Amino acid sequence: MKNRIRELRARHRISQADLAEKLNVSRQTINAIENDKYDPNLPLAFQLSHLFGESVDEIFDKEEFLTSINQKPLK
Amino acid sequence: MNPNDSSGKSEWPYTSFLLFGFFGSDSPGGKTLMKYTSLALALFVIGAFGISIFSGGIFLYISSLLIPVSILILIWSNSEYIKGLDTLSQLIQLKAFAFSYGAAMFIGFTIYAVYASTGFFISPVWLVLAEPLRGLVLYMVAKEYE
Questions:
Q1: Cα Rg for chain A, rounded, in angstroms?
Q2: Does A15 reach chain B within 8 Å, measured CB to CB?
Q3: DSSP character at residue B66
Q4: Which CATH number characterizes residue A36's domain?
Protein backbone atom coordinates (compact mmCIF):
# COMPACT_ATOMS: atom_id res chain seq x y z
CA MET A 1 0.00 0.00 0.00
CA LYS A 2 1.32 3.42 -0.95
CA ASN A 3 2.31 5.48 2.04
CA ARG A 4 4.07 8.67 3.22
CA ILE A 5 6.64 7.10 5.52
CA ARG A 6 9.66 8.26 3.52
CA GLU A 7 8.28 11.79 3.45
CA LEU A 8 7.50 11.71 7.18
CA ARG A 9 10.94 10.32 7.95
CA ALA A 10 12.54 13.15 6.03
CA ARG A 11 10.34 15.69 7.80
CA HIS A 12 11.29 14.30 11.22
CA ARG A 13 14.92 13.83 10.14
CA ILE A 14 15.10 10.22 11.14
CA SER A 15 16.96 7.49 9.26
CA GLN A 16 15.51 4.13 8.30
CA ALA A 17 17.84 2.47 10.79
CA ASP A 18 16.76 4.76 13.66
CA LEU A 19 13.09 4.34 12.83
CA ALA A 20 13.56 0.58 12.63
CA GLU A 21 15.21 0.60 16.05
CA LYS A 22 12.35 2.61 17.58
CA LEU A 23 9.82 0.18 16.13
CA ASN A 24 11.87 -2.92 16.95
CA VAL A 25 11.90 -4.12 13.35
CA SER A 26 14.67 -4.52 10.78
CA ARG A 27 15.77 -1.67 8.52
CA GLN A 28 14.82 -3.85 5.58
CA THR A 29 11.25 -3.95 6.86
CA ILE A 30 11.05 -0.13 6.87
CA ASN A 31 12.52 -0.09 3.38
CA ALA A 32 10.03 -2.70 2.13
CA ILE A 33 7.10 -0.70 3.56
CA GLU A 34 8.38 2.55 2.01
CA ASN A 35 8.74 0.86 -1.36
CA ASP A 36 5.23 -0.59 -1.23
CA LYS A 37 6.60 -4.14 -1.16
CA TYR A 38 5.15 -5.02 2.23
CA ASP A 39 2.14 -3.86 4.24
CA PRO A 40 2.77 -3.57 7.97
CA ASN A 41 0.48 -5.37 10.39
CA LEU A 42 -1.97 -3.36 12.48
CA PRO A 43 0.23 -2.95 15.60
CA LEU A 44 3.12 -1.67 13.48
CA ALA A 45 0.80 0.70 11.57
CA PHE A 46 -0.45 2.10 14.89
CA GLN A 47 3.11 2.48 16.14
CA LEU A 48 4.02 4.44 13.00
CA SER A 49 0.92 6.56 13.45
CA HIS A 50 1.83 7.26 17.07
CA LEU A 51 5.47 8.08 16.29
CA PHE A 52 4.71 10.49 13.46
CA GLY A 53 1.63 11.96 15.14
CA GLU A 54 -0.61 11.27 12.16
CA SER A 55 -3.50 8.89 11.76
CA VAL A 56 -3.09 5.59 9.94
CA ASP A 57 -5.44 6.93 7.26
CA GLU A 58 -3.15 9.92 6.72
CA ILE A 59 -0.03 7.77 6.45
CA PHE A 60 -1.39 5.00 4.22
CA ASP A 61 -3.28 5.62 0.98
CA LYS A 62 -6.33 3.51 1.69
CA GLU A 63 -8.42 5.07 -1.11
CA GLU A 64 -6.15 3.82 -3.87
CA PHE A 65 -6.02 0.40 -2.25
CA LEU A 66 -9.81 0.14 -1.86
CA THR A 67 -10.31 1.32 -5.42
CA SER A 68 -7.83 -1.29 -6.67
CA ILE A 69 -9.80 -4.12 -5.04
CA ASN A 70 -13.13 -2.56 -6.07
CA GLN A 71 -14.70 -3.03 -2.65
CA LYS A 72 -17.87 -1.13 -1.71
CA PRO A 73 -18.88 -0.38 1.88
CA LEU A 74 -21.80 -2.31 3.39
CA LYS A 75 -25.14 -0.45 3.34
CA MET B 1 21.42 10.38 10.97
CA ASN B 2 20.58 10.42 7.33
CA PRO B 3 16.86 10.76 6.69
CA ASN B 4 17.41 10.26 2.97
CA ASP B 5 19.31 7.02 3.40
CA SER B 6 17.04 5.07 1.13
CA SER B 7 17.08 5.23 -2.61
CA GLY B 8 14.97 2.09 -2.65
CA LYS B 9 17.85 -0.28 -1.93
CA SER B 10 17.96 -2.58 1.04
CA GLU B 11 20.45 -5.33 1.63
CA TRP B 12 19.29 -8.49 3.32
CA PRO B 13 22.04 -10.69 4.79
CA TYR B 14 22.27 -12.81 1.65
CA THR B 15 25.56 -14.48 2.57
CA SER B 16 24.07 -15.64 5.85
CA PHE B 17 20.96 -16.90 4.04
CA LEU B 18 23.02 -19.02 1.69
CA LEU B 19 25.56 -20.28 4.22
CA PHE B 20 23.47 -20.70 7.37
CA GLY B 21 19.81 -20.35 6.36
CA PHE B 22 18.91 -17.50 8.69
CA PHE B 23 19.32 -13.77 9.22
CA GLY B 24 22.71 -14.00 10.88
CA SER B 25 24.11 -14.09 14.39
CA ASP B 26 24.19 -10.32 14.99
CA SER B 27 21.01 -10.38 17.07
CA PRO B 28 20.68 -12.18 20.45
CA GLY B 29 18.14 -14.53 18.85
CA GLY B 30 20.55 -15.26 16.02
CA LYS B 31 23.35 -16.02 18.49
CA THR B 32 21.11 -18.42 20.41
CA LEU B 33 20.03 -20.15 17.20
CA MET B 34 23.67 -20.49 16.11
CA LYS B 35 24.55 -22.02 19.48
CA TYR B 36 21.75 -24.60 19.38
CA THR B 37 22.30 -25.36 15.69
CA SER B 38 25.97 -26.09 16.46
CA LEU B 39 24.91 -28.34 19.34
CA ALA B 40 22.41 -30.16 17.11
CA LEU B 41 24.98 -30.59 14.37
CA ALA B 42 27.54 -31.96 16.84
CA LEU B 43 25.00 -34.47 18.21
CA PHE B 44 24.02 -35.47 14.67
CA VAL B 45 27.64 -36.09 13.67
CA ILE B 46 28.36 -38.03 16.89
CA GLY B 47 25.20 -40.08 16.36
CA ALA B 48 26.01 -40.84 12.73
CA PHE B 49 29.59 -41.75 13.67
CA GLY B 50 28.36 -43.98 16.51
CA ILE B 51 25.96 -45.81 14.21
CA SER B 52 28.79 -46.47 11.77
CA ILE B 53 31.18 -47.91 14.40
CA PHE B 54 28.90 -49.76 16.85
CA SER B 55 27.26 -52.93 15.60
CA GLY B 56 25.03 -53.44 18.64
CA GLY B 57 24.49 -52.83 22.32
CA ILE B 58 23.65 -49.74 24.32
CA PHE B 59 26.04 -47.43 22.43
CA LEU B 60 24.29 -48.18 19.14
CA TYR B 61 20.93 -47.30 20.71
CA ILE B 62 22.32 -44.09 22.22
CA SER B 63 23.89 -43.15 18.88
CA SER B 64 20.62 -43.83 17.07
CA LEU B 65 18.75 -41.69 19.59
CA LEU B 66 21.10 -38.74 19.03
CA ILE B 67 19.90 -38.28 15.43
CA PRO B 68 16.21 -37.53 16.22
CA VAL B 69 17.23 -35.58 19.32
CA SER B 70 19.41 -33.31 17.17
CA ILE B 71 16.46 -32.70 14.80
CA LEU B 72 14.17 -31.92 17.74
CA ILE B 73 16.70 -29.35 18.95
CA LEU B 74 16.69 -27.79 15.46
CA ILE B 75 12.89 -27.63 15.40
CA TRP B 76 12.67 -26.07 18.87
CA SER B 77 15.51 -23.55 18.34
CA ASN B 78 14.16 -22.44 14.95
CA SER B 79 10.65 -21.96 16.30
CA GLU B 80 12.01 -19.87 19.20
CA TYR B 81 14.14 -17.86 16.74
CA ILE B 82 11.17 -17.13 14.47
CA LYS B 83 9.14 -15.83 17.43
CA GLY B 84 11.76 -13.12 17.94
CA LEU B 85 11.74 -11.84 14.34
CA ASP B 86 9.63 -8.97 13.03
CA THR B 87 6.65 -9.88 10.87
CA LEU B 88 8.35 -9.43 7.49
CA SER B 89 11.36 -11.52 8.54
CA GLN B 90 8.96 -14.15 9.91
CA LEU B 91 7.12 -14.19 6.59
CA ILE B 92 10.34 -14.66 4.63
CA GLN B 93 11.59 -17.43 6.96
CA LEU B 94 8.25 -19.24 6.96
CA LYS B 95 7.97 -19.13 3.16
CA ALA B 96 11.43 -20.70 2.95
CA PHE B 97 10.50 -23.33 5.56
CA ALA B 98 7.28 -24.13 3.70
CA PHE B 99 9.16 -24.65 0.46
CA SER B 100 11.88 -26.77 2.03
CA TYR B 101 9.21 -28.83 3.85
CA GLY B 102 7.66 -29.59 0.46
CA ALA B 103 11.09 -30.38 -0.96
CA ALA B 104 11.85 -32.73 1.95
CA MET B 105 8.52 -34.51 1.39
CA PHE B 106 9.35 -34.82 -2.32
CA ILE B 107 12.84 -36.21 -1.64
CA GLY B 108 11.60 -38.57 1.09
CA PHE B 109 8.75 -40.04 -0.93
CA THR B 110 10.89 -40.28 -4.06
CA ILE B 111 13.42 -42.30 -2.07
CA TYR B 112 10.57 -44.51 -0.84
CA ALA B 113 9.08 -44.92 -4.34
CA VAL B 114 12.44 -45.88 -5.84
CA TYR B 115 13.03 -48.39 -3.03
CA ALA B 116 9.52 -49.86 -3.23
CA SER B 117 9.57 -50.25 -6.99
CA THR B 118 13.17 -51.30 -7.64
CA GLY B 119 14.58 -52.35 -4.27
CA PHE B 120 17.40 -49.86 -4.83
CA PHE B 121 18.27 -48.29 -1.48
CA ILE B 122 19.00 -44.57 -1.36
CA SER B 123 20.02 -43.20 2.00
CA PRO B 124 17.45 -40.85 3.60
CA VAL B 125 20.45 -38.69 4.51
CA TRP B 126 19.76 -37.04 1.13
CA LEU B 127 16.92 -35.26 2.89
CA VAL B 128 19.62 -32.89 4.06
CA LEU B 129 19.46 -31.34 0.56
CA ALA B 130 16.33 -29.53 1.76
CA GLU B 131 18.56 -27.36 3.97
CA PRO B 132 20.72 -25.65 1.29
CA LEU B 133 17.53 -25.35 -0.73
CA ARG B 134 15.99 -23.43 2.18
CA GLY B 135 18.91 -20.99 2.10
CA LEU B 136 18.41 -20.50 -1.62
CA VAL B 137 14.67 -19.92 -1.19
CA LEU B 138 15.38 -17.44 1.63
CA TYR B 139 17.61 -15.57 -0.81
CA MET B 140 14.95 -15.53 -3.54
CA VAL B 141 12.03 -14.62 -1.25
CA ALA B 142 14.00 -11.81 0.42
CA LYS B 143 14.73 -10.38 -3.05
CA GLU B 144 10.98 -9.85 -3.46
CA TYR B 145 11.03 -7.46 -0.50
CA GLU B 146 14.10 -5.46 -1.49
A1: 13
A2: yes
A3: H
A4: 1.10.260.40
